[in-house]
Amino acid sequence: MPPNYETPPPPTSFSHLSFPTPQILLITFSRPKVLNCMNIAAHWELDSVYNWLDTEPTLRVGIVTGSGRAFCAGADLK
Q: Considering the entire predicted model, what is its pTM?
């Protein structure tokens, strides 16, 4: 994390956060075995990431992508 952020990003376990430049947040869904389906915990994790993105003045854009062969197959209904 670059040192000029006012607060650290929230912890993540279902996605990976990276910073191609200090103004860009890259969010990569990292559940390729289930085609990046989002369960309830992943939904709330992303909610905290999006809220952090909204309140962090240095960040200007967030890019969302998925690892593996699918971006996101939708909700994980299991």
A: 0.89
Cα 13 to Cα 38, 39, 46, 58, 78: the distances in Å are 12, 12, 10, 23, 18
Helix (H, G, I), strand (E, B) or coil at 14: coil
Separate counts of helices (H) and strands (E) for the chain: 1, 3
The pLDDT tens digits for 14-30 are 999 999 999 999 999 99
Query: In angstroms, what CA-CA distances link 39 with 1, 27, 33, 44?
Result: 27, 16, 13, 9
Which residues, in sequence order, are CB contacts of 28 under 8 Å at separation 6+? 15, 16, 17, 18, 65, 66, 67
Three-class DSSP category at 75: strand
**Residue 8 token pair:** 């650290």
